[in-house]
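Hi there,

I know you've been waiting on this one. I reran it after we fixed the sequence typo, so this is the corrected version. Both the input and the resulting structure follow.
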Amino acid sequence: MRTKNDNINNPNEWIENAISKKLIEYYEYKYFNDIKEIGTGSFGKVYRANWKNPEKYEKYLAIKSFLKFNKATDNEIIEMLKLQSEADFHDSVIHFYGVTSENDQNNLPKNYSLVMEYADGETLREYLRKNFDKFTCDDKLSLAYQLVCAVSCLHNEGIVHSDLHSNNILVHQNIVKLADFGLLKRLIERKYKLNKMSDVYSVGVLLWEISSGRLPFYTEGEQYDISLIYEIIQGLREKPIPDTSITYVKLYTDCWNEEPDNRPTICKVVNRLNDIIFPNDETTKIDDDDLVNINIDKSEFSSAGGLDKKVTNKIYEITEYLNDQFLKYVDELVNLICKEINEGKELGVTKEHIFDYFKNHNINLQEIYDWLLHNQNNTNSIFLLGYLYYRGIGAIKNDWKAFNLFFDALKKDHILARYHVGLYYESGNKIVKDEKLAFEFYENIANKNHAAGEYKIGYFYEKGIGTKKDTNLAICWYEKAANNGNSRALYSLAFMYKEGKVIEKDNIKTFDLFKKSAEGKYSNGINMLGCCYEVGIGMTINRKIAFKLYKTAADLGNTYGINNLVRIDKYKALELYQKAAKLGNNKAQVNLARKYEIGEGLAKDINQAIYWYEKSAKQENLNAQMKLMRLKELV
């Protein structure tokens, strides 16, 4: 890669060649609308704009324009493109998407602007000012950790920011975002250490600011003066905030040490902050056995501060091993999700199985989430991070982030990503609803013999969604999906045989298909198998078995199962809920709490309702957590 000092004779041509080779995405300006200026500076202006291409992929983006357009400006754009592309994989760096130009005509010279992620949050300074009183210690450490990891990402790519302060760091949906890449500089030759250490100094100041909620030496209504600046140069530093961890204070004071050579590298800052957050986390530490034969002597350190080659090789070996382990976990988790989606498993069941996988493999959820944030270099990693956001596993549920990650993986032909993008277009959640486009995504998957796509195509043909209604084609695709083991397709076919409207009514076939669907743990199939036993469809009436099946469906959260359970025997249902709740079943605890809350089948008791909601909430039952929050607000 060329540095800023390299001579590019025709920068405009360089950009156009990069676009033609698909190295840079070009956004046609005509598809931008609702353009609004949101910032200005000496370099130019920043606009927020709504992007909507012919495929109806719609989102807000930021357009960064330049005041002057000449060869020097184009060279600067090229350098910024390189820097952005190198740091673009980190979640805490404003993402670069491509370029655009108002002059779309081929015969006119193009004045290029950068197209970047639009972060609609506040600056870190404003965020601290508004929210500091509500922050817990963990909230502060989370901000600090995101910040140092983002700076570490830049340094690892040979980039320094050189202008880190709380007014050009954004907080977007509780995620720290480094901004103002106009001042980024490539590290060159021997100057790299001073440049990096300048960033580390700024990080130290920011760590203090996060702990205090204010700027250093700031007094409201007063301006900084020359004498204060001189004192800071001479070594004046802010005092620690009371009740701040001693190790945290030591960390930021080391960062702002007067001598750059005495400051820790950003990598060491990350490790030390990690030790503060996870003091007993052995999984991030190297065992003594790994280092037993390694003796480190200060005299063995190079003048540049590098580690002895033997130590470096050992650390590299361990790092490679850990990366291989994480890649193995990622692939196995994606395979698990793929298998269960094709089997027609419900989201709640798959989520439980994912947590079981973490538990059985002794995986720390936060660790794999952090690893994914830093390792977005293969499609399974991109998809899995999107899925964690989609389901709210290890992170706050974020459909917009999930969709964007799925869309990125889709560009690399990831089957599961294609399926989930189809789900978003089908529902219209966070994007423009387009059932026809959803049908096309599902059709692509179905033609590759994936049961989930086959089931969806059958469903769309049955209901006439995104395509012309065709019952015969619906049956055809349902049968393909059913033969591939999809429990939802088995359920849909069973209903067709039960109703007898499009195919000949067959109670034996109905029972058999509902039974197979129930064996796949599909709650609707379990509930309908209960109906078969209750009224005698293809089977002798057996209300005892029906009741058990309704209860199983109800425990999976199936509303039809719950209604049928209560309809058959309210008092027996209550008795079973009490028994299951005491045995620790979180769904039964929710149902029992609900009965106490509304006084159904027993005396109304809000305290008991709260007690059982809390029991269930501690087992990460989201329904219980939401109901508990609402109920406590009323008490």
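Quick highlight: The mean pLDDT is 78.

Best,
R. S.
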